Fold each of these.
Amino acid sequence: MNKPLKCPICGKRACDVSGIPKEKLFIELKCPNCNKIVKIPCDESAVKQSPHPHLAGCRG
Ligand SMILES: [Zn+2]
Protein backbone atom coordinates (compact mmCIF):
# COMPACT_ATOMS: atom_id res chain seq x y z
CA MET A 1 0.00 0.00 0.00
CA ASN A 2 1.46 3.33 -1.03
CA LYS A 3 2.13 5.99 1.54
CA PRO A 4 1.98 9.66 0.60
CA LEU A 5 5.00 11.69 1.62
CA LYS A 6 4.33 15.27 2.50
CA CYS A 7 6.37 18.19 1.33
CA PRO A 8 8.23 19.87 4.23
CA ILE A 9 7.61 23.27 2.67
CA CYS A 10 3.96 23.31 1.69
CA GLY A 11 2.77 20.27 3.63
CA LYS A 12 0.96 18.79 0.66
CA ARG A 13 1.53 15.39 -0.89
CA ALA A 14 4.75 15.47 -2.87
CA CYS A 15 5.06 11.79 -3.85
CA ASP A 16 4.20 8.27 -2.80
CA VAL A 17 6.38 5.48 -1.54
CA SER A 18 5.42 1.84 -1.65
CA GLY A 19 6.86 1.26 1.81
CA ILE A 20 9.10 2.67 4.49
CA PRO A 21 12.66 1.34 4.20
CA LYS A 22 14.50 0.09 7.26
CA GLU A 23 17.47 2.29 6.53
CA LYS A 24 17.19 6.05 6.56
CA LEU A 25 16.58 7.24 3.05
CA PHE A 26 15.96 10.63 1.55
CA ILE A 27 13.99 11.38 -1.56
CA GLU A 28 14.85 14.53 -3.41
CA LEU A 29 12.36 15.85 -5.88
CA LYS A 30 10.61 18.87 -7.19
CA CYS A 31 7.38 19.26 -5.31
CA PRO A 32 4.44 19.40 -7.76
CA ASN A 33 2.59 21.74 -5.40
CA CYS A 34 5.11 24.45 -4.53
CA ASN A 35 7.62 23.72 -7.33
CA LYS A 36 10.57 23.74 -4.96
CA ILE A 37 13.31 21.15 -4.78
CA VAL A 38 12.70 19.36 -1.50
CA LYS A 39 14.49 16.58 0.31
CA ILE A 40 12.08 14.35 2.16
CA PRO A 41 13.12 11.74 4.72
CA CYS A 42 11.51 8.49 3.75
CA ASP A 43 10.11 7.55 7.16
CA GLU A 44 6.89 7.64 9.12
CA SER A 45 7.45 11.23 10.24
CA ALA A 46 7.08 12.43 6.66
CA VAL A 47 4.04 10.33 5.82
CA LYS A 48 1.03 12.52 5.40
CA GLN A 49 -1.59 11.36 7.87
CA SER A 50 -5.16 11.20 6.78
CA PRO A 51 -7.43 13.23 9.02
CA HIS A 52 -9.12 11.43 11.89
CA PRO A 53 -12.46 13.13 12.50
CA HIS A 54 -13.16 11.07 15.59
CA LEU A 55 -10.15 12.59 17.34
CA ALA A 56 -11.36 16.14 16.81
CA GLY A 57 -15.06 15.76 17.39
CA CYS A 58 -15.41 14.40 20.94
CA ARG A 59 -16.46 17.55 22.72
CA GLY A 60 -20.15 17.29 22.14
ZN1 LIG B 1 5.66 21.59 -1.66
Amino acid sequence: MAAAAPAAAWNFAPNEALLGLTAHSVRGALGRVKAGMVADGGGGGGARPVIPMGQGDPSLFPCFRTAPEAVDAVAGALRSGEHNCYSSCVGLEPARRSIAQHLSNDLPYELSPDDVYLTNGCAQAIEIICSVLARPGANILVPRPGYLFYEARAIFNGMEARYFDLLPEKDWEVDINGVQAIADKNTVAMVIVNPGNPCGNVYSYEHLAKVAETARNLGIFVITDEVYAHLTFGERKFVPMGVFAAVAPVFTLGSISKRWVVPGWRLGWIVTNDPNDVFQKTKVVDSIKSYLDISSDPPTFVQGAIPNLLKNTKDEFFNKTIKILRETADICWEKLKGINAITCPSKPEGSMFVMVKLDLTCLPDIKDDMDFCCRLAKEELVVLLPGCAVGYKNWLRITFAIDPSSLEDGLDRLRSFCLRHSKLTK
Ligand SMILES: *Cc1c(COP(=O)(O)O)cnc(C)c1O
Protein backbone atom coordinates (compact mmCIF):
# COMPACT_ATOMS: atom_id res chain seq x y z
CA MET A 1 0.00 0.00 0.00
CA ALA A 2 1.36 3.36 -0.97
CA ALA A 3 2.15 5.62 1.90
CA ALA A 4 -0.39 8.38 2.16
CA ALA A 5 0.94 11.77 1.34
CA PRO A 6 1.55 13.73 4.53
CA ALA A 7 -1.36 15.96 5.27
CA ALA A 8 -0.44 19.57 5.07
CA ALA A 9 -2.89 20.25 7.86
CA TRP A 10 -5.91 18.60 9.45
CA ASN A 11 -9.20 20.31 9.18
CA PHE A 12 -9.50 20.70 12.93
CA ALA A 13 -9.33 24.00 14.68
CA PRO A 14 -9.81 24.09 18.45
CA ASN A 15 -12.87 25.82 19.77
CA GLU A 16 -11.16 28.56 21.76
CA ALA A 17 -14.30 29.26 23.75
CA LEU A 18 -14.34 25.63 24.88
CA LEU A 19 -10.67 25.68 25.86
CA GLY A 20 -11.34 28.76 27.97
CA LEU A 21 -14.14 27.07 29.93
CA THR A 22 -11.77 24.99 32.04
CA ALA A 23 -11.17 28.21 33.96
CA HIS A 24 -14.85 27.95 34.97
CA SER A 25 -14.50 24.53 36.53
CA VAL A 26 -13.70 23.33 40.02
CA ARG A 27 -11.82 20.39 38.55
CA GLY A 28 -9.70 22.66 36.36
CA ALA A 29 -8.79 24.87 39.32
CA LEU A 30 -8.01 21.93 41.60
CA GLY A 31 -5.84 20.42 38.87
CA ARG A 32 -3.75 23.57 38.88
CA VAL A 33 -3.59 23.68 42.68
CA LYS A 34 -2.38 20.07 42.89
CA ALA A 35 0.02 20.28 39.97
CA GLY A 36 3.03 21.28 42.08
CA MET A 37 2.22 19.04 45.00
CA VAL A 38 4.58 16.14 45.69
CA ALA A 39 2.87 13.62 47.94
CA ASP A 40 4.69 12.83 51.15
CA GLY A 41 6.80 15.96 50.93
CA GLY A 42 7.38 18.22 53.88
CA GLY A 43 10.39 16.31 55.16
CA GLY A 44 10.90 15.55 58.82
CA GLY A 45 10.42 11.77 58.62
CA GLY A 46 6.74 10.87 59.15
CA ALA A 47 4.73 10.80 55.96
CA ARG A 48 1.93 13.34 56.08
CA PRO A 49 -1.32 12.51 54.33
CA VAL A 50 -2.80 14.91 51.80
CA ILE A 51 -5.81 16.69 53.34
CA PRO A 52 -8.47 17.07 50.62
CA MET A 53 -10.47 20.16 51.54
CA GLY A 54 -10.96 21.26 47.95
CA GLN A 55 -13.64 19.06 46.42
CA GLY A 56 -16.88 18.19 48.18
CA ASP A 57 -16.67 14.41 48.03
CA PRO A 58 -16.59 12.86 51.49
CA SER A 59 -17.27 9.35 50.17
CA LEU A 60 -13.62 8.40 50.71
CA PHE A 61 -13.93 8.75 54.47
CA PRO A 62 -15.34 5.72 56.35
CA CYS A 63 -17.39 7.98 58.65
CA PHE A 64 -19.34 9.24 55.63
CA ARG A 65 -19.96 5.84 54.03
CA THR A 66 -23.40 5.59 52.45
CA ALA A 67 -26.36 3.85 54.06
CA PRO A 68 -26.35 0.03 53.88
CA GLU A 69 -29.98 0.23 52.67
CA ALA A 70 -28.82 2.25 49.66
CA VAL A 71 -26.21 -0.36 48.80
CA ASP A 72 -28.83 -3.12 49.21
CA ALA A 73 -31.19 -1.24 46.90
CA VAL A 74 -28.60 -1.10 44.12
CA ALA A 75 -27.45 -4.68 44.67
CA GLY A 76 -31.09 -5.82 44.58
CA ALA A 77 -31.74 -3.92 41.37
CA LEU A 78 -28.73 -5.58 39.76
CA ARG A 79 -29.60 -9.08 40.99
CA SER A 80 -33.18 -8.81 39.79
CA GLY A 81 -31.93 -8.94 36.20
CA GLU A 82 -34.68 -6.48 35.30
CA HIS A 83 -32.51 -3.43 34.85
CA ASN A 84 -30.00 -4.38 32.20
CA CYS A 85 -32.01 -2.68 29.48
CA TYR A 86 -32.04 0.86 28.11
CA SER A 87 -34.20 3.15 30.16
CA SER A 88 -36.93 5.37 28.76
CA CYS A 89 -35.81 8.89 27.86
CA VAL A 90 -37.44 10.55 30.85
CA GLY A 91 -36.44 7.74 33.26
CA LEU A 92 -38.14 4.68 34.75
CA GLU A 93 -41.64 5.39 36.02
CA PRO A 94 -41.26 3.79 39.50
CA ALA A 95 -38.16 5.91 40.15
CA ARG A 96 -39.92 9.09 38.99
CA ARG A 97 -42.96 8.25 41.10
CA SER A 98 -40.91 7.70 44.23
CA ILE A 99 -38.94 10.93 43.73
CA ALA A 100 -42.21 12.82 43.20
CA GLN A 101 -43.55 11.42 46.49
CA HIS A 102 -40.31 12.03 48.32
CA LEU A 103 -40.20 15.70 47.30
CA SER A 104 -43.94 16.26 47.81
CA ASN A 105 -43.44 15.63 51.54
CA ASP A 106 -42.05 19.17 51.80
CA LEU A 107 -44.51 20.88 49.43
CA PRO A 108 -48.03 22.29 49.76
CA TYR A 109 -49.13 20.31 46.65
CA GLU A 110 -48.48 16.89 45.11
CA LEU A 111 -45.94 16.38 42.36
CA SER A 112 -46.74 13.81 39.72
CA PRO A 113 -44.21 11.39 38.20
CA ASP A 114 -44.59 13.43 35.00
CA ASP A 115 -42.97 16.38 36.75
CA VAL A 116 -39.77 14.38 37.25
CA TYR A 117 -37.01 13.77 34.69
CA LEU A 118 -34.07 11.56 35.64
CA THR A 119 -30.59 12.71 34.79
CA ASN A 120 -26.99 11.64 35.04
CA GLY A 121 -26.45 13.40 38.36
CA CYS A 122 -27.35 17.00 39.08
CA ALA A 123 -24.56 18.00 36.69
CA GLN A 124 -26.50 16.70 33.68
CA ALA A 125 -29.65 18.36 35.03
CA ILE A 126 -27.74 21.67 34.80
CA GLU A 127 -26.55 20.85 31.28
CA ILE A 128 -30.08 20.08 30.16
CA ILE A 129 -31.66 23.17 31.70
CA CYS A 130 -29.01 25.46 30.23
CA SER A 131 -29.50 23.89 26.79
CA VAL A 132 -33.27 24.09 26.99
CA LEU A 133 -33.32 27.75 28.04
CA ALA A 134 -30.66 28.95 25.61
CA ARG A 135 -31.60 30.93 22.53
CA PRO A 136 -29.58 33.57 20.72
CA GLY A 137 -29.36 36.73 22.79
CA ALA A 138 -30.77 35.17 25.96
CA ASN A 139 -29.14 35.66 29.33
CA ILE A 140 -29.32 33.87 32.66
CA LEU A 141 -28.66 35.33 36.11
CA VAL A 142 -26.23 33.46 38.33
CA PRO A 143 -24.98 34.08 41.85
CA ARG A 144 -21.52 35.35 42.71
CA PRO A 145 -19.85 33.60 44.45
CA GLY A 146 -21.37 30.58 42.79
CA TYR A 147 -21.12 27.18 41.25
CA LEU A 148 -19.49 28.06 37.95
CA PHE A 149 -20.74 24.98 36.16
CA TYR A 150 -23.87 27.05 35.38
CA GLU A 151 -21.84 29.78 33.69
CA ALA A 152 -19.79 27.25 31.78
CA ARG A 153 -22.88 25.47 30.43
CA ALA A 154 -24.69 28.72 29.70
CA ILE A 155 -21.74 30.16 27.81
CA PHE A 156 -21.18 26.91 25.93
CA ASN A 157 -24.78 27.11 24.76
CA GLY A 158 -24.29 30.66 23.55
CA MET A 159 -26.14 32.27 26.44
CA GLU A 160 -24.81 35.21 28.41
CA ALA A 161 -24.27 34.71 32.15
CA ARG A 162 -24.89 37.79 34.30
CA TYR A 163 -23.87 37.93 37.92
CA PHE A 164 -25.80 39.09 40.93
CA ASP A 165 -24.10 39.27 44.30
CA LEU A 166 -24.66 37.20 47.38
CA LEU A 167 -24.19 39.38 50.44
CA PRO A 168 -21.64 38.08 52.94
CA GLU A 169 -22.82 40.48 55.65
CA LYS A 170 -26.38 39.12 55.29
CA ASP A 171 -25.59 35.42 55.49
CA TRP A 172 -25.08 35.32 51.74
CA GLU A 173 -28.62 36.34 50.84
CA VAL A 174 -29.36 37.26 47.24
CA ASP A 175 -28.87 40.96 46.49
CA ILE A 176 -32.43 41.43 45.23
CA ASN A 177 -31.76 44.98 43.99
CA GLY A 178 -28.81 43.66 42.06
CA VAL A 179 -31.01 41.05 40.37
CA GLN A 180 -33.48 43.71 39.33
CA ALA A 181 -30.68 45.91 38.04
CA ILE A 182 -29.14 43.32 35.70
CA ALA A 183 -32.31 41.66 34.36
CA ASP A 184 -33.79 42.72 31.03
CA LYS A 185 -36.20 41.43 28.37
CA ASN A 186 -33.77 38.71 27.34
CA THR A 187 -33.34 37.27 30.83
CA VAL A 188 -34.86 33.78 30.99
CA ALA A 189 -34.07 32.60 34.49
CA MET A 190 -32.16 33.09 37.71
CA VAL A 191 -30.22 30.45 39.61
CA ILE A 192 -30.07 29.94 43.35
CA VAL A 193 -28.20 27.21 45.21
CA ASN A 194 -29.78 26.29 48.54
CA PRO A 195 -28.24 25.08 50.84
CA GLY A 196 -25.37 27.00 49.34
CA ASN A 197 -22.28 25.92 47.53
CA PRO A 198 -19.80 27.61 48.02
CA CYS A 199 -21.13 29.60 51.01
CA GLY A 200 -22.71 27.03 53.34
CA ASN A 201 -25.76 29.28 53.81
CA VAL A 202 -29.39 28.22 54.16
CA TYR A 203 -32.13 30.56 52.94
CA SER A 204 -35.11 31.42 55.10
CA TYR A 205 -38.73 31.02 53.98
CA GLU A 206 -39.07 34.82 53.86
CA HIS A 207 -36.02 35.27 51.67
CA LEU A 208 -37.16 32.58 49.22
CA ALA A 209 -40.56 34.29 49.05
CA LYS A 210 -38.76 37.50 48.06
CA VAL A 211 -36.81 35.66 45.38
CA ALA A 212 -40.07 34.28 43.97
CA GLU A 213 -41.71 37.73 43.95
CA THR A 214 -38.71 39.20 42.19
CA ALA A 215 -38.71 36.48 39.54
CA ARG A 216 -42.42 36.95 38.99
CA ASN A 217 -42.04 40.71 38.52
CA LEU A 218 -39.26 40.15 36.03
CA GLY A 219 -41.06 37.34 34.18
CA ILE A 220 -38.20 34.90 34.69
CA PHE A 221 -38.09 31.29 35.89
CA VAL A 222 -36.25 30.18 39.01
CA ILE A 223 -33.71 27.37 38.82
CA THR A 224 -33.03 26.07 42.30
CA ASP A 225 -30.09 23.77 42.86
CA GLU A 226 -31.09 21.68 45.86
CA VAL A 227 -28.41 19.05 45.60
CA TYR A 228 -27.70 19.71 49.33
CA ALA A 229 -31.38 19.52 50.33
CA HIS A 230 -31.75 18.59 54.01
CA LEU A 231 -28.01 18.79 54.64
CA THR A 232 -28.48 21.48 57.27
CA PHE A 233 -27.07 21.55 60.78
CA GLY A 234 -27.72 25.06 62.10
CA GLU A 235 -30.78 27.01 63.18
CA ARG A 236 -32.47 27.14 59.81
CA LYS A 237 -34.28 24.20 58.31
CA PHE A 238 -34.24 23.59 54.59
CA VAL A 239 -37.21 25.04 52.68
CA PRO A 240 -37.58 23.95 49.04
CA MET A 241 -38.06 26.72 46.48
CA GLY A 242 -40.90 24.64 45.05
CA VAL A 243 -43.07 25.95 47.91
CA PHE A 244 -43.30 29.21 45.93
CA ALA A 245 -43.90 27.69 42.50
CA ALA A 246 -47.35 29.25 42.23
CA VAL A 247 -45.67 32.67 42.37
CA ALA A 248 -42.99 31.88 39.79
CA PRO A 249 -42.40 28.52 38.08
CA VAL A 250 -39.43 26.62 39.50
CA PHE A 251 -37.03 24.02 38.16
CA THR A 252 -35.74 22.00 41.08
CA LEU A 253 -32.46 20.25 40.39
CA GLY A 254 -31.24 17.54 42.72
CA SER A 255 -29.50 14.21 43.05
CA ILE A 256 -28.59 11.47 45.48
CA SER A 257 -24.89 12.41 45.21
CA LYS A 258 -24.55 14.54 48.31
CA ARG A 259 -27.20 13.45 50.77
CA TRP A 260 -26.44 9.78 50.24
CA VAL A 261 -22.72 10.48 49.69
CA VAL A 262 -22.62 8.55 46.41
CA PRO A 263 -21.52 11.04 43.73
CA GLY A 264 -20.25 8.16 41.61
CA TRP A 265 -23.72 6.64 41.21
CA ARG A 266 -24.77 9.40 38.82
CA LEU A 267 -28.46 9.76 39.54
CA GLY A 268 -30.11 13.14 39.61
CA TRP A 269 -33.28 14.88 38.51
CA ILE A 270 -35.01 17.89 37.09
CA VAL A 271 -38.38 18.53 38.68
CA THR A 272 -40.82 21.02 37.21
CA ASN A 273 -42.62 22.73 40.10
CA ASP A 274 -45.37 24.54 38.30
CA PRO A 275 -48.94 24.36 39.61
CA ASN A 276 -50.06 26.92 36.97
CA ASP A 277 -48.82 24.88 33.99
CA VAL A 278 -46.64 27.66 32.66
CA PHE A 279 -44.00 25.17 31.54
CA GLN A 280 -46.62 23.24 29.57
CA LYS A 281 -48.03 26.35 27.90
CA THR A 282 -44.66 27.84 26.98
CA LYS A 283 -43.34 24.52 25.59
CA VAL A 284 -40.64 24.18 28.23
CA VAL A 285 -41.86 20.64 28.89
CA ASP A 286 -41.68 19.75 25.19
CA SER A 287 -38.20 21.21 25.02
CA ILE A 288 -36.97 19.12 27.95
CA LYS A 289 -38.43 15.95 26.42
CA SER A 290 -36.95 16.75 23.07
CA TYR A 291 -33.56 17.34 24.62
CA LEU A 292 -33.77 14.04 26.51
CA ASP A 293 -34.46 12.27 23.23
CA ILE A 294 -30.99 13.26 22.09
CA SER A 295 -29.06 12.68 25.34
CA SER A 296 -27.77 9.74 27.34
CA ASP A 297 -29.61 8.40 30.39
CA PRO A 298 -28.46 7.56 33.90
CA PRO A 299 -27.64 3.85 34.46
CA THR A 300 -30.86 1.82 34.46
CA PHE A 301 -29.99 -0.28 37.52
CA VAL A 302 -29.44 2.85 39.63
CA GLN A 303 -32.84 4.12 38.45
CA GLY A 304 -34.24 0.72 39.40
CA ALA A 305 -32.79 1.08 42.90
CA ILE A 306 -34.36 4.47 43.61
CA PRO A 307 -37.73 3.37 45.06
CA ASN A 308 -36.07 1.13 47.66
CA LEU A 309 -33.26 3.59 48.29
CA LEU A 310 -35.74 6.35 49.14
CA LYS A 311 -38.10 4.11 51.06
CA ASN A 312 -35.56 2.13 53.09
CA THR A 313 -32.82 4.58 54.06
CA LYS A 314 -33.17 5.08 57.80
CA ASP A 315 -33.16 8.43 59.56
CA GLU A 316 -30.27 7.06 61.56
CA PHE A 317 -28.04 7.42 58.49
CA PHE A 318 -29.08 11.01 57.78
CA ASN A 319 -28.75 11.95 61.44
CA LYS A 320 -25.26 10.52 61.59
CA THR A 321 -24.14 12.51 58.54
CA ILE A 322 -25.66 15.71 59.95
CA LYS A 323 -24.03 15.12 63.32
CA ILE A 324 -20.57 14.83 61.76
CA LEU A 325 -21.14 17.88 59.56
CA ARG A 326 -22.27 19.90 62.57
CA GLU A 327 -19.15 18.85 64.43
CA THR A 328 -16.80 19.62 61.51
CA ALA A 329 -18.51 22.95 60.79
CA ASP A 330 -17.94 23.85 64.47
CA ILE A 331 -14.29 22.80 64.34
CA CYS A 332 -13.84 24.84 61.19
CA TRP A 333 -15.49 27.94 62.62
CA GLU A 334 -13.51 27.81 65.87
CA LYS A 335 -10.13 27.08 64.31
CA LEU A 336 -10.53 29.68 61.57
CA LYS A 337 -10.89 32.36 64.24
CA GLY A 338 -7.35 31.66 65.32
CA ILE A 339 -5.79 32.08 61.87
CA ASN A 340 -4.48 35.47 60.94
CA ALA A 341 -4.88 36.53 57.31
CA ILE A 342 -8.23 34.69 57.10
CA THR A 343 -11.69 35.92 58.07
CA CYS A 344 -14.94 34.02 57.91
CA PRO A 345 -18.03 36.25 57.62
CA SER A 346 -20.62 33.70 58.71
CA LYS A 347 -20.82 30.28 60.19
CA PRO A 348 -21.95 27.61 57.72
CA GLU A 349 -25.39 26.11 58.41
CA GLY A 350 -25.71 23.76 55.45
CA SER A 351 -23.98 21.95 52.57
CA MET A 352 -20.30 21.13 53.09
CA PHE A 353 -18.54 24.42 52.46
CA VAL A 354 -17.57 27.73 53.90
CA MET A 355 -16.16 30.84 52.20
CA VAL A 356 -13.34 32.73 53.87
CA LYS A 357 -11.62 35.94 52.94
CA LEU A 358 -7.88 36.22 52.50
CA ASP A 359 -6.13 39.31 53.78
CA LEU A 360 -3.21 39.48 51.38
CA THR A 361 -1.75 42.56 53.07
CA CYS A 362 -0.60 40.19 55.84
CA LEU A 363 1.02 37.82 53.35
CA PRO A 364 3.62 39.82 51.45
CA ASP A 365 5.00 36.93 49.39
CA ILE A 366 1.60 35.59 48.24
CA LYS A 367 0.27 36.98 44.99
CA ASP A 368 -3.38 35.93 45.04
CA ASP A 369 -5.81 33.15 46.00
CA MET A 370 -4.48 30.73 43.36
CA ASP A 371 -0.90 31.34 44.46
CA PHE A 372 -1.98 30.82 48.08
CA CYS A 373 -3.62 27.47 47.28
CA CYS A 374 -0.75 26.22 45.12
CA ARG A 375 1.82 26.97 47.78
CA LEU A 376 -0.34 25.63 50.58
CA ALA A 377 -0.71 22.36 48.64
CA LYS A 378 3.02 22.19 47.98
CA GLU A 379 4.20 23.09 51.46
CA GLU A 380 1.48 21.61 53.65
CA LEU A 381 -0.29 19.03 51.46
CA VAL A 382 -3.59 20.75 52.17
CA VAL A 383 -5.87 21.26 49.17
CA LEU A 384 -8.29 24.22 49.23
CA LEU A 385 -10.25 25.73 46.37
CA PRO A 386 -9.18 29.23 45.32
CA GLY A 387 -12.05 31.71 45.24
CA CYS A 388 -11.45 32.41 41.55
CA ALA A 389 -13.00 28.99 40.86
CA VAL A 390 -16.28 30.23 42.35
CA GLY A 391 -16.06 33.72 40.86
CA TYR A 392 -14.68 35.35 44.04
CA LYS A 393 -11.10 36.40 43.79
CA ASN A 394 -8.88 36.34 46.87
CA TRP A 395 -11.28 34.29 48.90
CA LEU A 396 -11.07 30.55 49.56
CA ARG A 397 -13.66 27.80 49.66
CA ILE A 398 -13.04 25.27 52.40
CA THR A 399 -14.75 21.87 52.46
CA PHE A 400 -15.28 20.61 55.98
CA ALA A 401 -16.93 17.34 54.93
CA ILE A 402 -13.96 15.23 55.88
CA ASP A 403 -13.34 13.20 59.00
CA PRO A 404 -12.91 15.41 62.08
CA SER A 405 -9.32 14.48 62.90
CA SER A 406 -8.13 15.11 59.32
CA LEU A 407 -9.96 18.44 59.41
CA GLU A 408 -8.17 19.51 62.60
CA ASP A 409 -4.87 18.46 61.08
CA GLY A 410 -5.62 20.37 57.86
CA LEU A 411 -6.65 23.55 59.69
CA ASP A 412 -3.55 23.40 61.91
CA ARG A 413 -1.40 23.16 58.82
CA LEU A 414 -3.29 26.08 57.28
CA ARG A 415 -2.54 28.08 60.42
CA SER A 416 1.21 27.31 60.34
CA PHE A 417 1.30 28.20 56.67
CA CYS A 418 -0.34 31.58 57.32
CA LEU A 419 1.97 32.29 60.26
CA ARG A 420 5.05 31.35 58.29
CA HIS A 421 4.12 33.62 55.39
CA SER A 422 2.82 36.40 57.53
CA LYS A 423 4.60 39.61 58.22
CA LEU A 424 2.79 39.87 61.53
CA THR A 425 4.61 38.38 64.48
CA LYS A 426 1.63 37.26 66.48
C1 LIG B 1 -22.00 18.63 43.49
C2 LIG B 1 -22.90 19.64 42.92
C3 LIG B 1 -23.60 19.38 41.73
C4 LIG B 1 -23.40 18.14 40.93
O1 LIG B 1 -24.01 17.04 41.51
P1 LIG B 1 -23.92 15.59 40.86
O2 LIG B 1 -25.17 14.93 41.28
O3 LIG B 1 -22.71 14.92 41.43
O4 LIG B 1 -23.80 15.73 39.39
C5 LIG B 1 -24.49 20.35 41.27
N1 LIG B 1 -24.66 21.51 41.92
C6 LIG B 1 -23.98 21.81 43.04
C7 LIG B 1 -24.20 23.13 43.72
C8 LIG B 1 -23.06 20.89 43.57
O5 LIG B 1 -22.35 21.21 44.66
